[in-house]
TrEMBL record:
Subcellular location field: Secreted
Source organism of the structure: Haloarcula japonica (strain ATCC 49778 / DSM 6131 / JCM 7785 / NBRC 101032 / NCIMB 13157 / TR-1)
Gene Ontology biological process terms in this record: polysaccharide catabolic process
Pfam families (UniProt xref): CBM96, Metallophos
Region: Disordered, residue numbers: 294-368, 381-402, 560-583
Basic and acidic residues bias (residue ranges): 294-307
GO function terms (MF aspect): hydrolase activity
SUPFAM superfamilies from the UniProt entry: Metallo-dependent phosphatases, Type I dockerin domain
This protein's name: Serine/threonine phosphatase
UniProt keywords, alphabetically: Secreted, Signal
Domain annotation Dockerin: ranges: 537-598
Compositional bias annotation for Low complexity: 340-358
Domain of life: Archaea
Amino acid sequence: MLKAAGAGVGLTALGTTASTGQQTDYWTVVALPDTQVYAKEGTPYGKDQTQWIADNADAENIAFVSHEGDVVDHGDDDAEWQYMDEAMSTLDGVVPYATVTGNHDYATLWDRNSSVANYKEYFGLSRYDGRDWFGGAGPTNGDEGRDNLSTYQLFSAGGYDFLHLALEWEPPGTVDDPSTTLGWAQSVLDRYPNRATILTTHSYLRDEPQQRTRELQEASKVGNTGRTVWENLVSPNGQIFMVLCGHWHDGTGKSGGEAHQVSTNDAGSSVYELLANYQFRDDGGHGLLRRIEFRPGDGSDAPDRIQIRTYSPSTDEEQTDSDSQFGFDIDFDARFGSSPGTPEPTETPETPDGPTATFQQRTDGYSGTTDTMIRAAEPETSYGTAETLSIGGSDPEGSGSSTQALLRFDGIIGTDSGQIPPGSDVKQATVALETSGEGDGAAVHRLRTDWSADSTWASLDGGVQTDGSQAVTDAVTRTGAVETGKSSIDVTASVEAWANGAQNAGWVFRPLGNDGWDIQSADSDVPPTLTVSYTPGETVAGDADGDGDVDTDDVDRIQRSVAGEDGNIDRDAADVDGDGDVDIGDAVSARNLAEGNQ
């Protein structure tokens, strides 16, 4: 869903402001569009941009700088990298910043399988040593040429804490696989659920037609389109409020290389998507950059405003057309003070009224808990008797190998005392876990495949996949970072499904990051506990097995009960004539009901 983008208002000329050490009452994020032409031709524009930022960092309260990719034009040309290294070094020690890879930053244009050695040499991890605002890089899978191409940064401005995600060109993978770029990005978001987030990636929004990208341009078709990034990462994570990108320039004249739109995410909040790329204008854009100003109290329809200006430090000119100068009214406190729609670690809620069933290994005679972990690093090894289960994206540390945990509570649905009657309305179900080692947490998915305590990574065909076959695609919950002590997750939807006849295969815990989460198993002194509050479903006369209908299975159960054989039977339902006991007359009545249902 798109809202009409806010039109620009009349503004004074920017000019080049000498730093006075005095801060404005607004703060600014600067976006640097594709600098490839400046690097190729060695013109001063790229260095003018960063020098202006350094000179005005205090006066304009510049909180962060984001380069939108295509740092250079030829990824194998060392001279171009040296030019941009010198330009960006002007920002060192002045302001936090990030770069992302563009298609031109690879040794072979359009081919992500070609070398990125130059990018990593000049803009890799070593560049940010000692920077307290640098969060980290990923994903890491042991491929020196491909690892750590995406990064994240932390900064604060205006009394708010922000996260910036810098994702490689056409970021690959899925959000549930932390060994991929999208999965790594999701793990970072889960680690910082209360930080409003800006995401930058090279190719995302097109200018003509104005829409998110729908086809991959990378040579081997590895990666994700802008549309997929929106659907799988941006829209479900309410803390992401802005997406920046470059690359596209299909429009003509002053409209070329610019686009902006306001989209509505899954939580109903606005996301501001901005494209800027001036490489095909005169002199590659003669140094045009984007100033994104966060102005408290300047809104009309909301208290505050984000104002976008497009300015060239080299020419001291501001672009004032509606594609270059525009803004959005917003409530900073409402949007930046929390993370709408972003799951946070679940705390144990108050127990609602109604019957409650509790299941814990070796408690009140219950012995139905099965759990284990499966490790990619030891694919044939079974951990069914381990007292600690680990969930992590890099186990052993630095290996990039995933470890998953599996958990199931058998025998929770039934008509015996202590069980949840079939067809019950499950009001609340939580699993309490004892966390013995804090970590990045997990995405918890309901399983659909059979497994046992002896299952291994190999026996489950390379770990459990959330493909709809082995496990349900949508996560029951994402825990976010988990601390030592009691952790509780809401599994109400899962138990409700099981009460209504779905297969109970338990859950898989898939890692949200490389920092492993350790939980105590059913073999430990503090086994997992499932607590379920429910309202029993309406009793159906004759439905002795509680499956919702009356058939020959019910007749058989009633007959065996009359004969004195042990059996799992709903005596209230089996007492068809309502005389207070179950006898041969009830069996006959049940048979008649069953025949009538055929």
